[in-house]
Amino acid sequence: MSTDFDHIVIGAGISGLGSAHFAARRGRRTLVLESSDRVGGCINSQTFPELGGFWTEAGGHTCFNSYGNLLSILDDLGLTRHVQPKGKVGYLLWKGGQRASILSALHLWEAMRSIPKIFSAPKEGRSVSAYYGDVLGRRNYRDLLRHAFQAVICQPADDYPAEALFRRKPRRKDVIKAFTFSTGLSAIPATIAAQQGLEVRTGQQISVIERDGDGFRVTTGGETLSCGSLTLAVPPDVATALMPAGFDAARAAITDIGVAEIETLVLAFRTSDLGLKPIAGLIAVDEAFYSAVSRDFLADPSYRGFAFHFRPGALGEQAQIERACLALGTTPRHIAAQARVRNRLPALRTGHTARVRRLDETLAGTRLAVTGNWFLGVSIEDALTRSRSESDRLFAV
Ligand SMILES: Cc1cc2nc3c(=O)[nH]c(=O)nc-3n(C[C@H](O)[C@H](O)[C@H](O)COP(=O)(O)OP(=O)(O)OC[C@H]3O[C@@H](n4cnc5c(N)ncnc54)[C@H](O)[C@@H]3O)c2cc1C
Fold first, then answer.
1. Would you say the CB of residue 42 lies under 6 angstroms from ligand 1?
2. What region holds the Amine oxidase domain (predicted)?
3. Same domain for 377 and 247?
4. What is the DSSP letter of 40?
5. pLDDT at position 135
């Protein structure tokens, strides 16, 4: 049967673009359909044209030399030689209306007593609070780690599966340990999408996918496109809604995976208007925001930028601005530019691995792939590891 495309991917975040890249490199005619007006999803280097193009990361901000699948894509696209090292700046705690050092919250003796358990304590099947409370001590978990993990995943961390955080991966010694690009991480999705051999269409909100023999039909903007293989690379609630008829067991396996909504406020200031020393960001303790991530890792001569990740509904828009300025030791009148972004991250729970196993059993032997940041973990590399294995399943000869 002839089709419009060999492969259609829904979602142009890094998972979808990675899937498209792997398929295009295997010579498959690939189309990516994205609902928003830009590619990248959670990778979003928020650029302010009114500030001469100064940017701040509103989502993902750091890649590591342990990101093997990402690096293979960067190699393919000639991007590896353009990576920029991240400057050494540290995080501070924001607690009780004051900035404090991370060490101030560490119970050193408890940590030293507990740490040997890291070699014996099981991680699989346990929650973040159970596992890390074991290996660094209950008080360290309560006063420090809990907040640090919440800062990373921008949602309550206690019930999150421990194995979905900080997976050990081999490092590539020829690449800088922690890196970005001179225009921010958005250089990655932009370059994947611009390569020859794959097509990306933005502004395409997909709501129905139908089966067409072994393949699929996707209706977009009044046009119906057919494909032999299809990859869903969208958050779990969207994947559940888009699952075609006949994939009822797959839908049932993922239907109760939650999604955390994050209200991100991006603020830029003139460097001369901020007294705060350079920081990587703030880890908030019992606050309306989980964390703030700064642009200070790649210093700009004129501006400084910060993304504050707020709990949904915790504060109104003006109150968010005032709280963020308070944490930075400044006032709203010094803001040079601002933007608001809605981020979404999966809210995984223990037992997640069994859910993924059930999904994979139902997908085996079909031409439907499902990928995203809700399989192995939320990092860019976790997402690409899933995209790679799904691409192998669909296209390996
Ligand atoms: C604040 C924050 C900081 C982070 N920091 C880091 C970091 O430093 N390092 C790191 O490795 N990871 C980090 N992450 C995690 C990482 O950035 C994300 O997990 C990853 O980028 C997600 O990619 P994805 O493609 O799976 O999902 P998404 O980026 O969510 O992409 C899904 C795409 O699908 C589109 N879509 C949704 N519905 C439809 C539809 N119906 N039709 C068509 N398209 C649709 C969306 O618009 C979106 O573009 C961070 C995440 C956040 C939010």
1. yes
2. 14-149, 164-272
3. yes
4. B
5. 86
- CATH code assigned at 386: 3.50.50.60
Are 248 and 381 part of one and the same domain?
yes
Domain assignment of residue 382, given as a range: 5-43+186-256+350-395
Q: Which of 253, 251, 339, 349 is nearest to 295 (CA)?
A: 339
Q: Are 359 and 250 in contact (CB under 8 A)?
A: yes
Q: Are residues 309 and 365 in the same domain?
A: no
One domain for residues 223 and 303: no
Distance in Å, CA 45 to ligand 1 centroid = 12
pLDDT tens readout for residues 282-341: 999 999 999 999 999 999 999 999 999 999 999 999 999 999 999 999 999 999 999 999
15 lines ligand 1 (CB under 6 A): yes
Cα angle vertex 246, ends 241, 247, to 5°?
Answer: 55
**Domain identity same for 280 and 390:** no
Q: Which atom of ligand 1 is nearest to the CA of 238?
A: 38
Tell me which residue has its CA closest to atom 17 in ligand 1.
60
Q: Which two tokens stand for residue 211?
A: 């089966």
Instruction: Indicate if the pLDDT at residue 361 is higher than 70.
Output: yes
Residue 67 Cα to ligand 1 middle (Å)? 16
What are the pLDDT digits (tens) for 202-254? 999 999 999 999 999 999 878 999 999 999 999 999 999 999 999 999 999 99
Distance between CA atoms of residues 313 and 235, nearest Å: 21
What is the band of 143 on the pLDDT scale with cuts at 50, 70, 90?
A: very high
Is residue 333 domain-shared with residue 358, that is, in the same domain? no
